[in-house]
């Protein structure tokens, strides 16, 4: 804060103005404003929490480290980079799928003086409790990746999750068609029933595949959700699906790469890997390797750097008591509320364009192209 008028000699309005301009300059310097095209729309000390008088500090609670590799390998890394380059104080913790720990971490963050709190809820109930408490204490909040139904977050930053599901539905349809399967039996292995995203993904893929069922082109197979996206449970569930259908499953819509890999494990035991197309999401190293091996039909790449940058930009603004216009809202049907939102576009990945994920810096060639995959990587142009 060198070279500027001491805040103490300014009127409140002048002080707010100076702080807001400093905020915008800092964001512009960090290159964050350019990322999403968000516009500053004036400072705000009322209602949304955050305070221009407190030292900005951002708390982030990630959900777990098992339901997807992304939380620790991508989200944490990119959020950290964004906070560091903007020079703000931050604290990123992981609740490891423990709802009590989630609440405790939030309490600690609030009492340690965070001015903005970003959460990936474990379910809407616990998420709402944390958001409401933060709001009461004047802490601004963001729903990161998962919308908390009935919640009170000031912003929601995610991908267009119905579009994610649509890509999965289209991807599976393409693979089944390419394999010339007649009236294939399609099974659904959905995400956690308490994750609003899982509902949106299903809306997306069902929107594509239901028409095929209705037209008699595909046959509807088992359809089950996986509690907490648990990969081990997913494997048990799929084993049961496989047994009860007498092995008559021709394609599997698995909602993410972890669930997809559980399905592939069962298919491998039955020498059916590569013969039954399986979908995924997150472009994890494991998912991409399954694609290169020919065991997985596709995944969905979500450029998490963009998601983290957009959320960090908003969190920094809120932490400083500023407000931004995202130009878009999503409906929280449970709270009957329009939540200002940033929704990014997902991308479909098949063997043909796995290299795009490497080119984007999301996974490295070293991580992906281990000895067992070196030849496949060369074939895929990586
Ligand atoms: C995220 C996915 C992730 C899943 C399990 C969802 O809410 O959007 O990217 O695979 O949770 O962690």
Automatic annotation (TrEMBL):
Residues 58-323 form the Periplasmic binding protein domain. GO terms for molecular function: carbohydrate binding. The keyword Signal applies. InterPro entries: Bact_Solute-Bind_Prot2, Peripla_BP_I, SBP_2_dom. It is found in: Cell envelope. Its main location: other. The keyword Protein biosynthesis does not apply. Gene3D superfamilies: 3.40.50.2300. GO terms for cellular component: outer membrane-bounded periplasmic space. Keywords: Signal. This is Sugar ABC transporter substrate-binding protein.
């Amino acid at each position: 804060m060198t070279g500027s008028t001491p805040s103490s000699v300014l009127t409140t309005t002048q002080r707010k103005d100076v702080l807001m301009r400093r905020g915008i300059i800092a964001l512009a310097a960090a290159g964050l404003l350019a990322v999403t095209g968000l516009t500053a729309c004036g400072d705000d000390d009322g209602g949304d929490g955050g305070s221009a008088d407190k030292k900005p500090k951002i708390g982030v609670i990630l959900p777990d480290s098992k339901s997807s590799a992304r939380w620790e390998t991508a989200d944490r890394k990119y959020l950290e980079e964004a906070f560091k380059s903007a020079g703000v104080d931050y604290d990123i913790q992981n609740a490891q799928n423990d709802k009590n720990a989630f609440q405790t971490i939030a309490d600690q963050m609030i009492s340690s003086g965070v001015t903005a709190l970003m959460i990936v809820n474990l379910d809407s109930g616990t998420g709402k409790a944390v958001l409401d408490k933060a709001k009461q204490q004047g802490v601004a909040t963001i729903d990161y990746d998962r919308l908390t139904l009935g919640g009170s977050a000031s912003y929601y930053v995610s991908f267009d999750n119905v579009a994610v599901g649509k890509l999965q539905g289209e991807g599976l349809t393409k693979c089944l068609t390419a394999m010339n399967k007649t009236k294939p039996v399609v099974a659904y292995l959905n995400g956690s029933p308490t994750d609003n995203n899982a509902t949106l993904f299903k809306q997306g893929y069902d929107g594509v595949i239901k028409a095929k069922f209705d037209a008699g082109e595909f046959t509807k197979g088992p359809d089950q959700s996986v509690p907490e996206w648990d990969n081990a449970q997913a494997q048990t569930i799929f084993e049961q699906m496989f047994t009860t259908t007498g092995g008559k499953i021709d394609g599997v819509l698995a909602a993410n790469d972890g669930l997809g890999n559980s399905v592939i494990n069962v298919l491998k035991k039955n020498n059916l890997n590569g013969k039954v197309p399986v979908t995924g999401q997150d472009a994890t190293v494991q998912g991409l390797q399954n694609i290169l091996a020919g065991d997985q039909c596709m995944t969905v790449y979500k450029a998490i750097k963009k998601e983290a940058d957009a959320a960090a930009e908003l969190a920094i603004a809120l932490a400083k008591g500023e407000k931004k216009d995202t130009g878009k809202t999503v409906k929280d049907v449970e709270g009957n509320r329009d939540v200002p939102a940033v929704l990014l576009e997902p991308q479909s990945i098949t063997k043909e364009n796995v290299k795009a994920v490497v080119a984007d810096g999301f996974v490295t060639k070293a991580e992906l192209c281990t000895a067992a995959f070196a030849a496949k990587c060369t074939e895929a142009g990586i």
